[in-house]
Design goal:
alpha+beta; 6-stranded mixed sheet; 5-stranded mixed sheet; 11 helices
Length: 490
């Protein structure tokens, strides 16, 4: 399947789109005023230790204190071995850090909502082919490299270097097929970078950024540019030159795939990317068969509901459910990646009685998720017909990056009816008259509410005026939301 990377850069933001087979699969957005922190390394200071949560808050110079879990802190001394194995229970947080202690920590999850950034004292420094783990002694290989011989070959090349330097390495997906010379160059680059970081950390003060992750365009090249990527098109000449220089240093064989896009049509209009982004902000996702997905993102989890909608099938209900679920599995995997959904995700497939059909739908979902760079874990279909899964969350979802809560409904996705608001106004009038003295009252409300009151509720208004013995005047305000009103005592 052909793959292209489109990079759109303006003064205020950078956007990267991954297009596979002419269809948008992934969008990343980075704004100058809201640049993410994931990957950055800071000199921080512990401001509070919470034994009950086995965690600490760390001032790293960000807007809010970062959260550091006990499992992400290195013990001052190696854990004592018991029968040749490390103890199952980690030391308490009080034994690892104390208030006022300075430490170096890396952001592993951006601030989300009201939560501060998630930090880790176990640093990881990525390059084109490898990830350096300065405080580990192990060698790992990306799960996306599924050829066992290739995995073993990479391990055999990395293990001697890990033992020699006393650090750990992870071979990234891009390392597949890497020769020994290119690997040695990457190791040497990481050695120099780690040495410079150590020197910077020694002279840093609390709040200093010791290492800053690459900008989005260069990060996209490092993480996404592979042999199967046909083209990288960039519409900003300065970023194009930076990208060519970056690729020339770290991936010279792929430099010629980077192009400067000079077309008159905006680059994100090439494959309808702008329209796809707009559709990715909707809760309803139509399927080609006539079925649909309904995606709801909440604070705790994201739910995906599969509906047959207009699709009625050709044989029976079981076959209709099976065909719809197969299509929905592909669409759901794409939407997770496109919308950058993370955390707990629940997919409510249409009920299927055939066990083989359930297995095939689950396999289809897992296969569709295999191209996702983000780690996912899928569990078997539950007795209720639900698929529970997780997708690692490091940054805000696309919707939360691009949207904010509706000021009218406060993010509920619904608003009170004019009837409900009308009766709230009547109750407020009675409450105000009982508490305060007034000759008459003025009610300010939205045009829709005032229209209902003066039309359908005219008899009720007359009875209310007689009951309280005061005149009530209603005034429509175009700027008022449907739920907004004021009762003014005159």
């Amino acid at each position: 399947m052909s793959e292209e990377i489109l990079i759109n850069v303006t003064t205020h933001e950078s956007r990267v789109a991954v297009v596979e087979g002419g269809m948008l699969q992934e969008v990343q957005v980075e704004r100058v005023l809201k640049r993410g922190y994931v990957g950055n390394i800071y000199k921080g200071r512990v401001t509070r230790v919470m034994p009950g949560m086995e965690a600490a808050f760390v001032d790293a110079g960000l807007d809010r204190a970062g959260f550091l879990h006990g499992g992400d802190i290195m013990p001052a001394e190696p854990l004592a071995m018991v029968d040749g194995e490390a103890p199952a229970q980690e030391p308490p947080i009080n034994a690892l850090v104390h208030e006022g202690q300075d430490l170096v920590a890396q952001v592993i999850k951006d601030p989300i909502g009201s939560k501060g950034a998630r930090l880790s004292a176990y640093l990881s420094i990525p390059s084109r082919y490898l990830v350096l783990l300065p405080h580990a002694r192990s060698v790992g290989v990306s799960m996306r490299i599924d050829d066992e011989d290739e995995r073993q070959r990479l391990r055999s090349m990395l293990e001697p270097r890990s033992a020699e330097r006393g650090v750990g390495y992870i071979a990234r997906t891009n390392a597949a097929g890497l020769d020994a010379e290119a690997l040695a160059e990457d190791v040497a680059y990481l050695d120099k970078l780690w040495q410079s970081l150590r020197e910077a950390a020694a002279g840093a003060v609390v709040g200093d950024c010791i290492y800053e992750e690459l900008s989005l365009p260069l990060r996209a090249l490092r993480d996404l540019l592979r042999e199967d990527v046909e083209k990288v098109r960039i519409d900003a000449p300065e970023v194009y030159e930076q990208a060519r220089a970056f690729a020339g240093r770290f991936m010279p064989a792929l430099v010629d795939r980077i192009e400067h896009y000079t077309g008159s049509q905006p680059i994100f209009d090439l494959y309808g990317v702008e329209d796809e982004i707009k559709r990715a902000l909707n809760t309803l996702v139509p399927l080609k068969s006539g079925g649909s997905l309904v995606i709801d993102q909440t604070e705790a989890m994201t739910t995906v509901d599969v509906n047959t909608a207009r699709f009625v099938g050709h044989r029976n209900l079981e076959e209709t459910a099976f065909r719809t679920n197969l299509e929905a599995a592909q669409a759901a995997a794409r939407q997770m990646r496109l919308r950058n959904l993370g955390g707990i995700i629940i997919i409510d497939f249409i009920d299927m009685h055939d066990a083989e059909h359930r297995r095939q739908v689950l396999r289809a979902l897992e296969k569709a998720l295999a191209r996702d760079r983000v780690k996912t874990t899928v569990y078997p279909i539950s007795p209720l017909g639900l698929v529970e899964m997780t997708r690692k969350r490091t940054t805000e979802s696309l919707a939360r990056q691009l949207c904010e809560a509706c000021p009218s409904c406060g993010g509920r996705g619904r608003q009170k009816t004019t009837e409900t608001v009308t009766y709230e106004i009547f109750r407020e009038i009675v409450r105000a008259v009982r508490q305060f003295e007034a000759a008459r009252l003025l009610v300010l409300a939205s045009p829709a509410v005032v229209e209902r009151i003066t039309d359908e509720e005219s008899v009720a208004v007359a009875e209310l005026q007689e009951s309280i013995g005061k005149t009530i005047r209603f005034q429509a305000e175009d700027q008022y939301a449907q739920e907004q009103f004021d009762v003014v005592l005159l």
